[in-house]
UniProtKB/TrEMBL annotation:
Catalytically driven reaction(s): nicotinate beta-D-ribonucleotide + CO2 + diphosphate = quinolinate + 5-phospho-alpha-D-ribose 1-diphosphate + 2 H(+)
Pfam families cross-referenced by the UniProt entry: QRPTase_C, QRPTase_N
Protein name as catalogued: Quinolinate phosphoribosyl transferase domain-containing protein
Source organism, top-level taxon: Bacteria
A GO CC term assigned to this protein in UniProt: cytoplasm
Family listed: Belongs to the NadC/ModD family.
Organism lineage: Bacteria, Bacillati, Bacillota, Clostridia, Neomoorellales
SUPFAM superfamilies attached to this UniProt entry: Nicotinate/Quinolinate PRTase C-terminal domain-like, Nicotinate/Quinolinate PRTase N-terminal domain-like
GO molecular function ontology, one term from the record: nicotinate-nucleotide diphosphorylase (carboxylating) activity
Domain Quinolinate phosphoribosyl transferase C-terminal, first and last residues per copy: 89-262
InterPro entries: Aldolase_TIM (IPR013785), NadC/ModD (IPR027277), Nicotinate_pribotase-like_C (IPR036068), Quinolinate_PRibosylTase_N_sf (IPR037128), Quinolinate_PRibosylTrfase_C (IPR002638), Quinolinate_PRibosylTrfase_N (IPR022412)
Quinolinate phosphoribosyl transferase N-terminal domain sequence ranges: 14-87
UniProt entry keywords in alphabetical sequence: Glycosyltransferase, Transferase
Amino acid sequence: MLDIREHLFAELHQKVFGFEIRVNQAGVLAGVRKAVEFATELGLKIEFFSQDGDRVEPGHCVFRGKGEAEKIVRAEEMMLGCLGKPSGVATAANRAVELAGERLKVVCGAWKKVAAEVRQELRQAIKLGGAGIRITEEPFVYLDKNYIRMLGGITPAVERAKMLPGRSVVVQLRGNGPAIEGEAKEAVEAGAGILMIDTGDEADLKRVIELAQRDGWRDRVKIAFAGGVTFDKIPRLANLGADIVDVGRAIIDAPLLDFRLDVTG
C-alpha cells in the first residue's frame, strides 16, 4: 500500500525542520512527560519544553524541537493528543480549587470511572490542577452503599472497618431508608470520621451540618458532599460549611485545552 507521507516527503529525506508546539488557550499544562517520551521515541531533537503544572497563556510555546518532515507530522498526531485532554482536566481542577477558596477541599474521584489506560495520566492532571484524587490523604476505609448493604448496615460496617488500626472511616450517606440525619447520626455514633453526603441535594448537606452543630460533633467529623457538583455550586457549598467537595464530571469531562504545532523553518 502506498504511504502518502513517504511519497510526499521522499525528496526531503534527511532535511531537518524546526517546529514549535504552542497553546491556544490559558490553562494549566499537563501531559508534558508523555509528550517528551513520544518525541524521544520518534528521534526528534528536543530543544525546549515546559514543565507539567506550568500556567500557560494563549500563544505560549510549550515545546520546541527539530526533526525530519515525516517525524514532525507524526509528532503532531501524537504529541498534541498527549497534551490536550490532561491539560483540560488540570485546568478544570484548578478552576474548581480557586472557586472553593482556602477552607473547602476539592477532590475528584471520577478518574476511577475512566478506562484503565488513561487513569494514571488523568490522576496526575487532577493533582497538577491542585485537587485531590482521594477524599483524604491519610489511610482510610471508604464504606459505600454496597459495602454497607452487604455488611448489614452502617453500624456493623463501621465497626468492622474500625478493626483496621490507624485508618479513618468514611461513610457514604445516600438517604436510603432513614432520613439523611439518621444515617449521619448512626455513622458518627459508630465511629466514622468523614461523612460523604452523596445525594447532590444541598438541603441534605445543610441538615447534616445543623445536626452536627446541635449535637456537638461538628469539630471532630469532616463533612463531604458529592453528586452532580458543577462549578457554579462550589462557592455556595463552601458557604454552607462543607469541608470537602467531590467534583466529578465537571473536571474529568473537561474539554481539551487546544494546542497547535507549527513548522518554523
